[in-house]
Design a protein that fits this description.
The structure holds two protein chains of two kinds. Chain A is an alpha/beta fold. Chain A has one domain: Glutaconate Coenzyme A-transferase. In chain A, 15% of the residues lie in helices and 26% in strands. The two termini of chain A are 25 Å apart. Chain B is α/β, with parallel strands linked by helices. Chain B has six helices and eleven strands. In chain B, the strands form two sheets. In chain B, strands 1, 2, 3, 4, 8, 9, 10 and 11 form an eight-stranded mixed sheet that branches. The longest helix of chain B is centred in the middle third of the chain and has 13 residues. Classes of the chains: A alpha/beta, B alpha/beta.
Chain lengths: 217, 218
């Protein structure tokens, strides 16, 4: 059986997510693939981006000569502030994240389970050093949590779409939608429902790359 | 006359005792680097340091850790290859990793007199093992306690003699919230301004939370 389909690259996943973000939403983008989503939301579609270090209305990176050392995002990269933006202190910034004020948060992940469990902070419970950052806060607080990740792992090709996560959880039952290089999956009460696939991919081929059972609209 | 300005860093750092908990604001910027050097240069040992992240292999956090005066680090993120990561793996540094929002909220709680709070953050994770959880409004939540400092090291753009402060752009980060959560809040300010020069509605950290200010021009 020959398969003729092209997986999306990381920018392609970001572009696909950006299509689904409407004007007016207040959005936090995690590090990795999600950071690139902002590049595909045109400035005239007024989406307000939040950064955990207290930035409301984060804008594109400045030209090198316009870098302001006092203005960075949560990935510590230089950014600009959109007209209408504001600064808050760290506790207020996480009150935004934890208090249900974000319409959407997009995070990277190692694995997502069919009940919406998210694993994105540790590859093993025995890692000597935990690097939790703000992922647990963002995961429990946003009105919608979407995940951007590759469908299978790079190394052994194991599926990241799981019945149960094998990695330590970041939060339980929080993921609403997953955007991978192959498909868009909604987490429903029945498990993963496929909303979209890359052209040329068959249902069987997608199921073969998913450990959890997939459902179809 | 209230005047919180002190003449130099040594005066600003005077009286910090062994075993103190020191809150250090900053997130890539907004960090009181001169005061951190002052902490290295004075005598207090056995310190607990609270800050956002464990830093890299150079810079003020690394210098402070390498001074051997720090017993414990409380933060949200540590790189394995950093000075903090190396000291921890050698057993020379205690480490408490706290989700970043919980870290900020624990500090805010200390400043606000909140004695404990429940949050869903981390409740279904390894971080909750052996700790008190409770289902509230249908959500599993984890009990968290305030995190108070004996000392806070704060960075500001402008300061007046009452200790009213402004902070630049995202350099505000932990500064206002840590300033209100310590018994001794010490500020390094880039600009010294006259009382009244900062419009009241533009004060980011009111002087009532500030004890000492040292003027450190760029």
């Amino acid at each position: 059986m020959s398969e003729t389909f092209a997986p999306l690259d990381r920018a392609g996943i970001a572009e696909r997510i950006a299509r689904d973000i409407p004007e007016g939403w207040f959005v936090n983008l995690g590090i990795g693939i999600p950071t690139g989503v902002a590049d595909f939301v045109p400035l005239d579609r007024e989406v307000i981006f939040h950064s955990e270090n207290g930035v409301i209305g984060a804008g594109p990176a400045p030209a090198p000569e316009d870098v302001n050392p006092f203005l960075v995002n949560a990935g510590t990269q230089p950014i600009t502030l959109r007209t209408g933006g504001a600064f808050v202190h760290h506790a207020d910034s996480f009150a935004i994240a934890r208090g249900g004020h974000l319409d959407l948060c997009v995070l990277g992940a190692f694995e997502v389970s069919e009940s919406g469990d998210l694993a994105n902070w540790a590859r093993s419970p025995n890692e000597p050093i935990k690097q939790v950052g703000g992922a647990m806060d963002l995961a429990i607080g946003a009105k919608r949590l979407w995940v951007a990740m590759e469908h299978v792992t790079k190394g052994h090709g194991g599926s990241r779409i799981r019945k149960l996560c094998s990695y330590p959880l970041t939060a339980k039952g929080v993921v609403k939608r997953v955007y991978t290089d192959l498909a868009v999956l909604e987490v429903t009460e029945h498990g993963f429902t496929v909303l979209d696939m890359v052209p040329g991919l068959t249902r069987d081929a997608l199921q073969a790359r998913s450990e959890a059972e997939l459902h179809w609209q | 006359m209230i005047d919180k300005f002190v003449p130099d860093v040594a005066a600003a750092m005077a009286g910090i005792r062994d075993g103190s908990t020191v809150l250090i604001a900053g997130f890539a910027n907004g960090m009181a680097e001169t005061l951190m050097q002052g902490l290295v240069d004075q005598d207090a040992r056995d310190l607990t340091i609270v800050l956002n992240a464990g830093g890299r292999d150079d810079g003020p956090i690394a210098d402070l850790l390498a001074s051997g005066r720090v017993r414990k680090l409380i933060c949200s993120f540590v790189r394995a290859a950093s000075v903090a990561g190396t000291l921890f793996q050698k057993g020379e540094l205690e480490l408490e990793i706290v989700p970043q929002g919980t870290l900020a909220e624990r500090i805010r709680a200390a400043g606000a007199g909140v004695q404990a709070f429940y949050t869903p953050t981390g409740a279904d994770t390894l971080l909750a093992e052996g700790r008190e959880t409770r289902v509230i409004n249908g959500r599993n939540c984890l009990l968290e306690y305030p995190l108070r400092g004996d000392v806070a090291l704060i960075d500001a753009w402008e300061a007046d003699r009452w200790g009213n402060l402004t902070h630049r752009e995202s350099a505000r980060n932990y500064n206002p919230v840590m300033a209100m959560a310590a018994d001794l809040t010490i500020v390094q300010a880039r600009h010294r301004v006259e009382l009244g020069d900062i419009a009241p509605q533009n004060v980011h950290t009111p002087g009532v939370f500030v004890h000492r200010v040292v003027h450190i021009p760029a």
